[in-house]
Amino acid sequence: MMSEWSFQDGPVLVIGSSGIDLVARPFDALQTGTSNPGQIRYSPGGVARNVAENLARLGAEVILLTAVGDDDQGRQLLEHAAHAGVDIEHTIRVPEQPTGSYLAILDSQGALHTGIDDMRVIDAMPPEFLRERRELFRQASAVFVDANLPERTLRTAISLAFRSKTPIAADPTSVKLAPRLCPYLERLWLITPNEPEAERLCAHPVPHADPASAIAAARHLVTEGVNIAIITMAEFGVGYAAAEGSGHIPAMKTEIVDPTGAGDALTAAVIFALMNAIPLDEAVRLGVAAAALTLRVPGTVVADLSLERLYEEL
Q1: Helix-strand-coil percent breakdown of the chain, rounded to 5?
Q2: What order of strands is seen across the sheet that includes strand 100-106?
Q3: Whether 67 contacts 124, CB under 8 Å
Q4: Entry pTM
Q5: What is the chain's mean pLDDT, rounded?
Q6: Which of 18, 178, 182, 233 could be joined to 200 by an S-S link, Cβ 3.0–4.6 Å?
Q7: Long-range contacts: 161-166, Cβ < 8 Å, 24+?
């Protein structure tokens, strides 16, 4: 475990999934087995892509390593990211796979009912692709990975960052994928699971909506070697822990238009704040503010996101 992290000048290297989000929300109570009148929207998505765009809009220099299909959706994703200020030079375009996608079914209150993702295109990013770009890891101020990456590629990304002494942030992405991060906990600077993902990482129950349990899970991850662990609990806020302390930040009461991307906004805001020497407690509060802002927009990223807007939200 590295107990001390320092941030050199350089871009944040963001590695993982990009895709198109398709989010459906019924007007009334969701009924299974039949069609539900409601609203359906498309937007750029993917955990890594969302984190990259949020960081860029906050003012960070960002390089995105991802894979998309050689199709209209892939081109649209890359154009959107580039317009937001993300460096997309190192993107893989895959002729034989469609661009990734995520289908979310919300309930009438805006909470996630169920989701299905198709991120097979990211399998086209082999370990060799990262090794050929090892200089990017040496130049980076921090590295972010999501667990959609193929296991060998994830291992290579974390190894290259660790050897370069570059702080590594990780998102477990889903309950199914979270165990991929278990072998690397002692190498992580930051991890941001939700409660079900934390259960898989900690190998013990994390009761829903219990801040004390979330803090305990975060502390457990710190004992496993993680520098900073943040457990998100949706409307119940976040529990967090680091070697120097732990705590709970309540969620902000806000209208929920669309929950998609709120966790990615929190992660990006925390990374940005910590890289700019903002204390952990304040950084987590800024992350909660970023999540609240994102909940209120029909998309995955707030287009006019800035540090000033986050502080106005506190």
Answers
A1: 40, 25, 35
A2: 38-45, 19-26, 100-106, 112-118
A3: yes
A4: 0.94
A5: 95
A6: 178
A7: 161/13, 161/137, 161/187, 162/187, 163/137, 164/134, 164/137, 164/138, 164/140, 165/2, 166/13, 166/137, 166/138, 166/140, 166/141, 166/142
Calpha distance 127→32 (Å, rounded): 42
- A 10 A CB-CB count for 53 gives 32
Q: What is the CATH number of the domain that holds 162?
A: 3.40.1190.20
How far apart CA 309 and CA 92 sit, in angstroms, is 34
The dihedral of CA 144, 149, 155, 156: what is its sign?
A: negative
Render 172-216 in DSSP notation, one character per residue. Answer: --STTTGGGGGGGGGG-SEE--BHHHHHHHHTS---TT-HHHHHH
Question: Is there a contact between 98 and 71 (Cβ–Cβ < 8 Å)?
Answer: yes
User: In this structure, is residue 8 part of a structural domain?
Assistant: no
In a domain, 6, yes or no: no
Note down the domain range covering 119: 17-313
- As a whole number of angstroms, the distance between CA 17 and CA 309 comes to 27
pLDDT of 41 reads 92
Only one residue has tokens 């001390």, namely 4
Residue whose entry in the numeric block shows the structure tokens 């662990």 = 229
- Using one digit for the tens of pLDDT, what is the confidence trace for 240-273? 999 999 999 999 999 888 888 999 999 999 999 9
